[in-house]
Please model this.
Amino acid sequence: MAEQSVLTKPAIQVEDLDLYYGDHQALYNIALEVEENSVTALIGPSGCGKSTFLRTLNRMNDLIPGVKIDGKIRLYGEDIYDRKVDVEMLRKQVGMVFQTPNPFPKSIYDNIAYGPRIHGIRSKKQLDEIVERSLRQAALWDEVKDRLKDRATGLSGGQQQRLCIARALAVEPEIVLMDEPTSALDPISTSKIEELLGELKEKYTIVIVTHNMQQAARVSDKTAFFLNGELVEYGETDTLFSNPSNSKTEDYITGRFG
Amino acid sequence: MIRQFDTSLKEVKHLLLDMGEKLEIAINKAVKSLSRLDVDMARDVLNNDQAIDEMENRIDDKVATLIATQQPVAKDLRKLISALKIASDMERMADLATNIAEVTLHFVENDLKLFKELKDISEMARITQNMVHDGINSYIDGNVDLSKKMAETDDQVDKLYERIVKELLEDMIQEQKFTEVSLRLCFVARYLERIADHATNVAESVVYIETGKREDLN
Model:
C-alpha cells in the first residue's frame, strides 16, 4: 500500500471545510483527501451532510440562497472557491449523476452530444465519436447503438441511469460525483452500474453517496462516514467495514442506529 | 432497540454454550471411564458424540442464514465467523474425547489392566477441561483477559504431556508387558494435549472478536 500511495496523487483536497445554510451549520471542519482514480463512498444517516458535502465539490450549493462556505477545497491543487474560477468549467471538470435518472426529452444521441455541443464541438464526426465512446464507457453502447435517434425517455430506468453517466462522461470530466445513483434501480441494473464503477475508476475519480452500505463496501476503495455534519471516520473501505476505529461508525454500519 | 439480529446472535451463543457443556462432560467422562475402566461411561461418551456433531451443524446453518439474510459487518461479522470456528474446534475436541473413550473400551475388551494410577493424565484432563470451560465463558462475556489467561495454561498441559510420555517410555523399557498399555496411554496424553490446543484456538477467536486482531496465543 505504501508503494501505491507514492504513485497516486490527491485529486481532491479538503481542508477545514464549514458550511452554513443561513444560521444552520451543516458541515463542521471537514478535512479529507481523495486519491486520483479511486472510488470514494460517502455514507451516513439522512441529514448527516454527505450530499451537502458532495455538492460542495462542484459548487452546486452556490445555487442555494444563504449558503456560506469556509475552508478550502482544492482540485489538483487549484482552489475551486477562488474568485477567478469559472464555475461552468469547474462543472465540466467535475460531472454529476443524480439519484433519479434525468435524461433530457431528446434522442439518446442528443442527450450525449448536448454537453460537447455547449462546449463548442460542432463536427458531426467528432460528436459521433464522443457519443460512441461515452456510451461504451457507460456499458450502454451495445444496447442502444441501433436506436440512437430514439427518445431517451423510452429506455428502462437502469438504461436511463447509464445514459446519464454517459452524458456526464461526454465532456471528459476528471471527477464524477454520484448521488445515490442506484437507489431507484432494480438489483440487476444496480449491479451493472456497480460493475461499471470499477471500470470507470481507471480513467476517472469517483465520489459516490450511497445509503446502501453493502454497495459502499463492494464498490469503494475508501469510505467516509458522516454524522451530524462531521466526518467521523475516513479510511480504507476494507478496514472501515471489518474493524472500524470509531464506535459510532461500528454502531452505524452494524445497523444499531440511523 | 432489540434487533432481530441481536436475538439471533443470542441463539448462536446459547447453542455454543450448550455445545461447550456437552463437551466438558464428554472430556470428563472419557478420562474417568479410562481410570475406572468403566465401559458404560465410555459408551456414553461415544453415544453423545453424535449430538455434539449435530449441534455444530445447527450452528453452521444458523450462521449461514444470518450472513445471507442480514449481511453483518464489523464485530457482528467477526462474532459469526468465530462462532463457526469455535463450533468446529469443539467438534474436534469432542472427537478426541471419543478417542479416549475408545481406549477404555479397547483395554476392557482385551483385558488389559492399568499398571498404575493415572494421576498425571487425570491432572491433564482437569486442566484441559478448565480451559474449555474458560474458553466458552470468555466467548460469552467477551472477556479477552480470561481467554489470554486460559491460553497460558496450555504450557502446563504441554509440560505434563512431555513428562507423561517420558515416564511411560521408561515403563515400556522396564517391563515389556506394559508396552501396549503404555503406548495407548501415550495416545491418550496426546489426545488431551490436542484438546488443549483447540481450546487455545477458542481463546484466539475471542481475542479476534473483541479486538479485530489475530494474536498467536500459543
About this structure: The interface with chain A takes residues 1, 3, 5, 71-78, 212-213 of chain B (CB under 8 Å). The domain at 4-211 of chain B is CATH 1.20.58.220 (Methane Monooxygenase Hydroxylase; Chain G, domain 1).
